[in-house]
């Protein structure tokens, strides 16, 4: 069992999606995360173990490498694709209750801002870590964040901004959410924001990268 879970983690870490995927070249012709996840389920390995000891382990490794600049955006995207393809086999078990998400994470790029590459990476890393993600997309108005919080009590909220002209939206969103739901934890990220800005607007956490966001919410869920 352990070796199969290690193989699944390896496929996710190196972005090996399935048998027909030619990437990475040294794994061409081999089974990928999709087939191995199916095999593990067929062998009776609990879905929770496949998720926590296989898929999530692979995503965590790629997140750490990305933070250390050992890999770049394309590799993270391949890992996320391997993870999400494998998750197609696991997702039905969420519905039956055999696997439980760690919690819900709401994310969006703030109003006026259309940049979504960084936001998507954060979203994928968090989903890959066993969270239910509600991705509101780009150009998200403060009221839409509030609505999502109401619909998903006890969720974390992640705000992304790439423009100095749109980062100011974060302050509005934080105060709107905190007014009605002071217990909601809000984390922010994106190139123009930093720790000082986080303190100024009353957000709970500044994550410079996706791994930082994952570690923060995982610590809260522990
Ligand atoms: Co725009 N753009 N752009 N752009 N763009 C920047 C951001 C800019 C720095 C370029 C420059 O001038 N040097 C500049 C902003 C300047 C400023 O505000 N100080 C800029 C500008 C000015 C603009 C326009 C205004 C240009 C124009 O039309 N005159 C316009 C605005 C449109 C709008 O949003 N309303 C515009 C448009 C665009 C495109 C549409 C062409 C395209 C976006 C495509 C898309 O996202 N689908 C684009 C792009 C691609 C860029 C650059 C080149 C790359 C951004 C990116 O995706 N980086 C960017 C310059 C640059 O960064 N070199 C630039 C890769 C991505 C992985 O990094 O998003 O930083 P990043 O995310 C990181 C971290 O920040 C963090 O994790 C990610 C992974 O490490 N992170 C979080 C992000 N969100 C997080 C949330 C978290 C935690 C971590 O928790 C919740």
Structure, described:
The chain is an alpha/beta fold. It has helices at 2-14, 33-42, 47-67, 73-96, 117-128, 142-151, 169-180, 195-201, 210-221; strands at 104-109, 132-135, 156-160, 186-189, 205-206. It folds into two domains: 2-96, Orthogonal Bundle (Methyltransferase, Methionine Synthase (B12-binding Domains), Chain A, domain 1); 104-221, Rossmann fold (3-Layer(aba) Sandwich). The protein has a five-stranded parallel beta sheet, sandwiched between helices. Helix 8 (195-201) links the parallel strand 4 and strand 5. Helix 1 runs parallel beside helix 3 (47-67), helix 3 (47-67) packs antiparallel against helix 4 and helix 6 (142-151) packs parallel to helix 7 (169-180). The protein is globular and about 50 Å long. 45% of the residues are buried. The model has no long low-confidence stretch (mean pLDDT 95). The structure holds CO-5-methoxybenzimidazolylcobamide (B1M). Residues 73, 107, 112-119, 121-122, 158-160, 162-165, 187-192, 207, 209-210, 213 line the site of CO-5-methoxybenzimidazolylcobamide (B1M).
């Amino acid at each position: 069992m352990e070796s199969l879970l290690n193989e699944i983690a390896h496929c996710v870490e190196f972005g090996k999606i399935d048998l027909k995927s030619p990437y990475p070249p040294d794994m061409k012709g081999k089974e990928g995360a999709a087939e191995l996840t199916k095999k593990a389920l067929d062998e009776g390995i609990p879905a929770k173990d496949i998720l926590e000891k296989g898929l999530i382990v692979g995503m965590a490794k790629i997140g750490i490498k990305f933070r250390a600049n050992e890999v770049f955006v394309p590799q993270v995207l391949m890992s996320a694709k391997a993870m999400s393809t494998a998750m197609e086999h696991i997702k039905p078990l969420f519905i039956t209750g055999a696997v439980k998400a760690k919690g819900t994470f709401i994310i969006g790029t703030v109003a006026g801002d259309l940049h979504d590459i960084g936001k998507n990476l954060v979203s994928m890393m968090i989903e890959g870590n066993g969270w239910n993600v509600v991705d509101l997309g780009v150009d998200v108005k403060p009221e839409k964040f509030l609505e999502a919080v109401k619909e998903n009590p006890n969720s974390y909220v992640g705000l992304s901004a790439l423009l100095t002209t749109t980062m100011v939206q974060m302050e509005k969103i934080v105060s709107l959410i905190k007014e009605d739901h002071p217990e909601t934890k809000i984390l922010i990220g994106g190139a123009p924001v930093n720790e000082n800005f986080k303190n100024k607007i009353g957000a709970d956490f500044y994550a410079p990268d996706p791994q930082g966001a994952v570690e923060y919410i995982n610590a809260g869920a522990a």
